[in-house]
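Q: Okay, next protein. This is Cation diffusion facilitator CzcD-associated flavoprotein CzcO from Microcella frigidaquae. I've checked the sequence twice, so it should be correct. Can you predict the 3D structure?
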Amino acid sequence: MAQEYELIIIGGGQSGLAAGRHAHKQGLNYLILEASNAIGSTWRERYDSLTLLTPRAYSGLPDLPLSGDADGYPSRDEVADYLQQYAKNFDLNVVLDQAVLEVTKRGELFTVATESAIYTAPAVVVATGPFQTPRMPTWASATEEVLQLHSSAYRNPAQRPRPAEWWSFVSTR
């Protein structure tokens, strides 16, 4: 049996939460589906030293500014914490661990299927964000001779060989 809503939002990041806030303010029966097990987890998976390129004063979502120095630049963990706080502060209707498998439309009604549930609504917002699936060129194949690290897997410089190790590696070839 499908659960019925007026609006289904796919993705619980910044755009999905902001859309949810507006739906909440309008009194809509809405649902935010988040694929991960925590709001903001995508931020925590990025590289360790990530900071936003815009100051806190310009980085908040509707109705809740980012706390701290307005001219400072928030870190990845600060943004992740803020997104969790945002959802909690406005009691947004978020369901975690709900990766969407399929969206179909019949007539005026969308059906959104996850592994554990089916939802229906006359409107769907897709707020999944870009670059969630790493892509490697077909010509780039794994080799022991050259370290290949996709940007999605990079966390910090410790993952790279140090220059002395690299020189030793190269000079023995």
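A: Here is a summary of the prediction. The first strand starts at residue 3 and ends at 4. The chain is about 25% helix and 20% strand.
Q: Noted. On to the next one.
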